[in-house]
Design a protein that fits this description.
The protein is α/β, with parallel strands linked by helices and 232 residues long. It is built from 8 helices and 6 strands; from the N terminus they run E-H-H-H-H-H-E-H-E-H-E-H-E-E. It has a 6-stranded parallel β-sheet, sandwiched between helices. It is elongated and about 65 Å long. It binds magnesium ion. Magnesium ion (MG) binds next to loops.
Amino acid sequence: MKPADGKQHLLIDADDTLWENNIYFEEAFEQFVDFLDHASMSAAEIRTVLDEIEIANIKIHGYGAANFARNLAQCYERLAEGEIQQGDLRTVMSFAERILDCPMQLIKGVVETLAYLGARHELTLFTKGHPEEQKLKIDRSGVGEYFHHTAIVKEKDTQAYATLARERALDKERTWMVGNSPKSDINPALAAGLKAVFIPHPRTWGLEHEEIQPVDGRLLVIEAFADLRRHF
Ligand SMILES: [Mg+2]
């Protein structure tokens, strides 16, 4: 599978591929469950309600910590058993807003691997989410310099990959999407005719899970980001 014929275009996901992200959302959710202190609902049952709220709101508002804060507040309004006290919603929102101040924790081997790949191939950082939040994370991560191009989109669906490929005049035979999400990185990139490298992350957000569609020879699965060196 190792491309022997020169330069490739590598489109690389950011959250939970280059740096930890979902662990902070999970922490915020745990704080929310403690604060809600529901008499009968389990954390998993509360999560199901929150997922419903998130799925509905993502279509309107998109992703990111600020939107997650709004989703937690709505979830609290729906599930709180007693009378909601003044300040409760602010407290709930603060659990999510704190995510914006969390340290950028790069995944092992990312810097060295990007330096290696950037010298050999064309790298595009391809991430979805709130444009300002994502831009801030890229700046704080310090890895922006390794990328020749950056694209932040609202949703990484098949259309988004097709658009990126067309706008950047990417040769599909030499273009790979690298990421941790079957739903946002792997399946839509394959559907758009690109190749893909799946790097599973054990703490991937539940709403990013999806069965990977079968393909012929266009999918590579590796264990760690640093393993990209062996293939590119
Ligand atoms: Mg990701």
